[in-house]
Design goal:
Low-confidence stretches: none
Structural class: alpha/beta
Helix content: 25-40%
CATH class: Alpha Beta
CATH topology: Rossmann fold
Largest sheet: 6 strands, mixed
CATH architecture: 3-Layer(aba) Sandwich
Distance between the termini: 38 Å
Radius of gyration: 17 Å
Number of domains: 1
Strand content: 15-25%
Number of helices: 7
Order of helices and strands: EHEEHEHHHEHEHEE
Strand order of the largest sheet: 4-5-6-1-7-8
Number of strands: 8
Shape: globular
Length: 217
């Protein structure tokens, strides 16, 4: 940052297993989003090694990193990032257009994803016609439509009230249980933290401690 050297993460040593429902927890500036971006191959570590689904992030060129994201990862953002001029169906379908699915296959996959989040009646609506909770459910459907191995969620409930937050989290918990998709959150929202099965507390770029649900060590 200018002439100043800033270390976002240091001495982080973590392993995530299949089907986890885990969260990176800590205050702003603790390194949560940076670590999430490295796991998602959006950033590369300046030192050390990050291996995601058997691939070393530092060794991937941009095309290979894009392929990893396209085929195996789903992203849920704080600000939804929906395309306002496109319908709910088109927003959810978008990741599938990058993959080799026929139109009939895409239609079934999109409708299945919208059924998971309870939005089959909004298929022709556009984001400006939806509530905040509905927009976030569309974002979840978009992330889940290709049944990714791993979903990364950065403060997914930051713009939602308590009732909608719980609905969103229950939906993600259900998909985690039914599809065995791994979820890793970056959050400091207590509503999210209560749902996590594994909590990884970050402080000043380091892992301070971990907590497991059901007193797992």
């Amino acid at each position: 940052m200018g002439n100043n050297h800033f270390t976002a993460l240091k001495d982080v040593n973590l392993t995530f297993g299949k089907g986890e429902f885990a969260g990176l927890v800590g205050p702003s500036g603790s390194g949560k989003t940076t670590l999430l971006n490295i796991i998602g191959s959006l950033d590369t570590p300046s030192e050390g090694t990050a291996v995601v689904l058997g691939q070393s992030i530092s060794k991937l060129n941009p095309r290979q990193a894009a392929k990893l994201r396209k085929e195996n990862l789903g992203f849920i953002f704080q600000s939804y990032n929906l395309l306002a001029v496109h319908t709910v169906f088109e927003n959810v379908e978008f990741p599938l257009l990058l993959l080799k699915y026929s139109a009939s296959e895409r239609k079934k996959m999109v409708m299945d994803a919208l059924e998971w989040v309870g939005l089959t009646d909004k298929v022709k609506s556009k984001p400006p016609q939806l509530s905040g909770g509905e927009c976030q459910r569309v974002a979840i459907a978009r992330a889940m439509v290709k049944k990714p191995t791993l979903v990364l969620a950065d403060e997914p409930t930051a713009n939602l009230d308590a009732a909608n937050s719980h609905k969103i989290l229950q939906t993600m918990e259900k998909l985690n249980n039914e599809l065995k998709t791994s979820f890793v959150f970056a959050t400091h929202d207590e509503k999210v933290i209560k749902y996590l099965k594994r909590k990884i507390f970050l402080l000043d770029g380091k892992v301070d401690h971990e907590e497991w649900a059901n007193n797992k060590n």
